Amino acid sequence: MRRDAMELLPGELKAVIGRLAPRTLDGIEELRIREGRPLEIVSCGQSRFACEDGTLHRSTDRAYRPGREVCRQLLERITNHSLYAMEEELRRGYITVPGGHRIGLAGRTVLEGGKVRGLREVGGFNFRIARARVGAALPLLSKIVDWPKQTVRSTLILGPPQQGKTTVIRDLARAISSGEWGTPAAASWGGRKVGIVDERSEIAASIRGVPAFDVGPRTDVMDACPKAEGMMMLLRSMSPEVLIVDEIGRPEDADAIREASHAGVRVIATAHAYDLQDAMGRPALRQLLEDAAFETVVLLRRGEKGVRFEIDSLDRHAQGHGRRAREPSGEVQAIARGHPGPQTDSRPAHAPV
Amino acid sequence: MIKLTGALLILFAGTMIGMFYSARLAARPNQIRQLVHALQRLETEIAYGYTPLPEAMIRTAAGLQPPVSDLLGLAGASAGEGNGQSFQQCWEEAIAVNWPQSAMKEPERLILRRLGTTLGISDREDQQQHLRLALLQLQAEEEAAREDQARYGKMGRNLGILGAALVVILMV
């Protein structure tokens, strides 16, 4: 686990985590801290309960149980002793901390006029350790470049949750913005202006407006902004050449994307969907696909070896009865991904990993 | 000759004790006033500026005089350091370190300690309420302190000299 994440933990909890085996420590994906209940650690894809001596077990019998004081200290640390300054975050239910880690919160909600105004008495934390995989998207990027226009094609990335969609578009932003196109032939193109609308602060994990992850030198981030509005704002104010958004699906998102594609801006978006057929079942996505707002659809699959991309070029011009002709042989690309992955984190990387 | 020197020394010491006592009495309402200003400033920082607590503490301290500024500054700095301490611990520590230098008394200390248990750990309105409550209590203390000063300030000084004189007379 990265040091910046460790620093946030209160002493007692830090000591327990510090006693974990190094391999487990490196592979930590989630820390689930629940007041008075066993400490759960998700590492290398496995979920276990941790004992005070740092051993991991399936059973909860001897597990370490963080107490009230520990949870209070943790909450204070992650809010910088200022819960009052986190109203928006508490309403959304998570806090992004330096380093891009996200901490989901559960507790008793405070209602106002029937709407959730915030959380009081937080009893559960889900500490999601962020790690940027610099270079994760390069094999994909080389497949979605638009050669004549020297940019990328508008792309919709589909995949179920937890498949690494966000990781991929974060790295796409970085690569496009810094001009790493993944193919030597495009080396002289340079970077493009990229705009990211980061509604859930996941892509860039901005702290006070400054991205915590490396998203490239020519990237502007609209943080915690509703997607549709953010896209329009970026179009008006920052003249992006490529727009990147996460998890589209509402009708207003579709309108904004259409607007962007009419303005000649390339859009790279992700959506929760298992495959193209699944995506077609969602009205907003279907409309976009039928309007040919996207030129390419990529399916993301996370297998044993790493993330796999299945690329499906929707050819704008060859079509019968309004359906896109699909390229018969969807290219399949696999990236080997040694667990737990080289942690280059937010430092700029000059060579793809 | 020695007797005379001793008598003079006693007189001098008695006067000084009296002066010191009355100076403390005079400083107390002023320091409470400083504290009241500090809390008002803090309230603005918290309720309208959404400034994180450590920063708000340090900023507030910048406009004040010791010992109140030292207290807030120390609390803010140690909370901002991030050594895993809760704000309450930092606050208690800052009070413990700075209290001997101040002219304030137990009631103010209690008010501050009670405030320390709530600062930073609830929403904006709650913070505002706690700050206002502490403010009102401090204002009441300030008034009491001023009365004390008016009543006992002069008396303390006179008592010092007269007490010393009494001792001298008894000695002679």
From TrEMBL, chain A:
Keyword Nucleotide-binding: yes
Domain AAA+ ATPase residue range list: 151-304
GO molecular function: ATP binding
SMART domains xrefs: AAA
Stored SUPFAM superfamilies: P-loop containing nucleoside triphosphate hydrolases (SSF52540)
Superkingdom: Bacteria
Region (Disordered): 316-353
Keyword ATP-binding: yes
Keyword line: ATP-binding, Nucleotide-binding
Protein name stated in the entry: Stage III sporulation protein AA
Species per Swiss-Prot/TrEMBL record: Paenibacillus sabuli
Lineage, opening ranks: Bacteria, Bacillati, Bacillota, Bacilli, Bacillales
UniProt gene name: spoIIIAA
TrEMBL record, chain B:
Pfam families documented for this protein: Spore_III_AB
Top-level lineage group: Bacteria
NCBIfam families: spore_III_AB
Protein's name according to its UniProt entry: Stage III sporulation protein AB
Organism: Paenibacillus sabuli
Lineage summary: Bacteria, Bacillati, Bacillota, Bacilli, Bacillales
